[in-house]
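Q: I'm building a small set of examples for a reading group on sequence design. Run inverse folding on the following structure and report the sequence directly after it, with nothing in between.
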């Protein structure tokens, strides 16, 4: 959280990502992702696992004892080992559950690296972090109804027409972290006290 707020040039986070609205089962497919940012460049590496396998890798209390995560190739093995190291060395623990509805658009052959997303109904919680539980805990709304987070993702240069369209509608770049917004909304972040000597 503070790395993001303080604007550190190098930041890394680990998250478990799940798609869809179906109830989560031990065999549900999830992705463990390592998202790293250096300056304005971002890289994402991820591992596809069942929810039960992800619980084992992350060392969660509810992890089934008989499950062993399956790694399918060398690239996955590298991500697996990095995740294993991060969870054991840094003792990472889940801090929040963030959920939202996403409408995603991808560029066609002329703009293969262009992706535009609209996230709505952004909510989060910091209690009852199990995805298996039917009880959603106390979920807090982050965005007011009718609002959306618009993300434009492009690896190279944004198409001119899209820049013009965003400018015409007075869209300006603004960094938004749904994770930080959830922690702030749930009241878990206390202002830092600065001590001057």
């Amino acid at each position: 959280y503070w790395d993001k707020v303080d604007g550190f040039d190098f930041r890394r986070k680990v998250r478990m990502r799940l798609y869809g609205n179906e109830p989560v089962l031990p065999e549900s497919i999830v992705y463990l992702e390592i998202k790293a940012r250096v300056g304005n460049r971002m890289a994402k590496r991820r591992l596809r696992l069942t929810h039960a396998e992800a619980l084992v890798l992350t060392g969660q209390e509810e992890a089934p004892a008989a499950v062993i995560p399956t790694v399918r190739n060398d690239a996955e093995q590298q991500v697996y080992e990095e995740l294993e190291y991060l969870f054991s060395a840094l003792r990472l623990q889940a801090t929040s559950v963030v959920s939202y509805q996403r409408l995603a658009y991808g560029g066609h052959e002329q703009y293969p690296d262009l992706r535009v997303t609209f996230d709505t109904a952004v909510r989060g919680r910091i209690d009852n972090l199990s995805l298996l539980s039917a009880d959603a805990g106390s979920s807090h709304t982050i965005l007011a109804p009718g609002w959306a987070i618009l993300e434009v993702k492009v690896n190279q240069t944004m198409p001119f027409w899209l820049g013009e369209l965003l400018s015409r509608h007075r869209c300006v770049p603004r960094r938004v972290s749904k994770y930080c917004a959830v922690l702030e909304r749930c009241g878990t972040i206390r202002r830092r006290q600065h001590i001057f000597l």
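The chain has five helices and seven strands.
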